[in-house]
Amino acid sequence: MNMNVQPLVELVDSKGQPIGSAPKMDVHLDGRLHRAISVFVFDDSGNELLQKRASHKYHAPGLWSNAVCSHPRPGESPRAAAHRRLEEELSMRAAVCEVFVMRYRADVGEGLVEHEYDHVFVAKALSEPQPNPDEVDSVRWMHKDDIGQLLRKEPDTFTPWFRLAHGEVLTSLEENHGQHAKVLITPAGDKATFLFPEEEVVAA
User: By C-alpha distance, which of 101, 98, 79, 82 is closest to 90?
Assistant: First the structure.
């Protein structure tokens, strides 16, 4: 990664309203709240696509995570960013649906912090992944029960945001939430606030 030319991310307040932009590395150093996206992709059998982050990533390298984790460009919609990053990271298409926003803060090592207003999408795969080696070391499809076992046995092999969001993503696929907010604290002490939309829209 060329640290001299840093992409910009969108800074937001606690309600997700844009308040400016800043270089990505800067916000990961000082912990300012910024907009992000996370996409959880499933196949027709209900298996979930996991990606192993490239070993040269500047934070959380080599950890397993959901199919796509990234940031919209300033002014770019989260949905557009989800489709863009599916193509850039995995060369795949998917039908995406935003299910909630996760506002969280987590230490990701090397003095870096993720403090994100994270738009979380579930998606149905419309093509097979072809990982970009600049972004992804490997991918695999796994059943939710197998993922759950790994999360219990080897939590440190997963990214913090995956540990926080995964269970809530599965719940969102099974039921409609009669609430607008929920706070989750994991056994490891991770904490996130989940904000649910009033209406879900599916688009190819």
Answer: 82
